[in-house]
């Protein structure tokens, strides 16, 4: 379910549910598709739990909906067909710690959420890196 | 009688407790650690004199940092050129008006449909009275200022999980929190709980102060009555003649008020940075940018995207893509260079500086911020709710609503800041949406506070700073650790190059920081140039 399409009348209920969903998210298997994904998180941490919804709620702000990146006075690198994603730890490191202007997300996402979104990016937008990242991998990257 | 040897509760503890109860203390402490609350060091524009004949400075970026440098360096006798990526001057000092078109990264285009005279400040929107440099240049250029209402006692504070989601008046939360705290502290004082830190005389003065501060009755209670209503407002206001007599209002109950967490909102306006009097330029923040551009606009070359910054012992060479001519590469040379390009972009540009400065350029992440401007058909917040300027705070994703601090009582449409969110998940979530969806969500959420939104909304625009092509982010997001490691290196004059902008200041995200960093950089650049 695309978080964007949640009817507004459900939104406040979803926000409440999301807090519960987020708490249990870490316990869930990384491949479980959570049925309810919040459009907006409550509190200081993201509450989306699936790779796709995290990408839609966070990453596409800069890397754009199709992972195509963007160019202005500087550039946001495309994630689509990006060979740098081949090394499993690379994207994990960037999401957790940031790089240059890119902010670190380590404090705002759980190990499981980072793994989810990295796995999503590494298997979408023309990328086909099937050696999935785990929450344990993310934990090891945290400084 | 006192017990000076009891270490359990000190005078300092007491002062801290009072400060926190009053709201400002914790907030100010937190902000100081972020570098947000430093006072400006401005003591007048720099007195630069004796520039070597024919010497030149190339300035990168025509925001306030770049333009103030251009102004002062040109006046000192330098030949000055500015390269600017955008087609306009001002950088983040930017107001959007009806008829304006804005294309964000990703290609989404917004056409602003605001009425004539209406505007929305996409970037900075308020000026503290102690931002002396900004105020100095406003005075010098004749930029008209008007009060910016930061605290409005009649605006709302709102929590979706308190009071059944019904917004509460700021004055009720403020007066009742203050009154209840005064009562509690009075009780503790009278019961002798503070005897270890207070003399009998201290206690008497404290109780006298608490009674006034909290509108307590003769028994030091905060109770419904004319005295408390004189702070929080009445159920029925006093009138004239034979009108219904004034009726006191009923204070919010202590425990529910504490649990509501609405007291968080009443601290903001007490911080040094937001204390009265704050200002805004009449007609939009970019009146400052326009005033600078009137002075130095002839020095600006627009649509120049810098790709390389080189230097040697003789001078500086900057390569740029001329976006007006299909990106054809060109070069500009000068003796010195002041670079005000945000680090989010500069960290991607090939620049010849030392390893320490390069590390500093690469080290600073950029902050997230989104704003949504909403035009409504009428000023319902004034007409229906008696809110004139100021800010409503909410725990909804929009975070706050700010009403125009200008043209009170005017008929016709007016523009409200319908969402302003920085940091935190919601700013990213808004920023990841298409522009029209940001507007739609701001209207939907704001409607929970102002049901008039549904009928009165006209049109809106939104700016997500990560998607602003000339910025790639809102401001340099320093931490204490990053400052310790990199700040000094970023501030150095490296050969013939110096950096400036809010990111090279202890007042990040404020125009004062941009101007002060620039004035400090050109003072040192000039010293080197004339050595």
UniProtKB/TrEMBL annotation, chain A:
This is Cytochrome c domain-containing protein. It comes from the Bacteria. The keyword Metal-binding applies. Keywords: Heme, Iron, Metal-binding, Signal. One of its GO terms (molecular function) is heme binding. Residues 1-27 form the signal peptide. Residues 46-125 form the Cytochrome c domain.
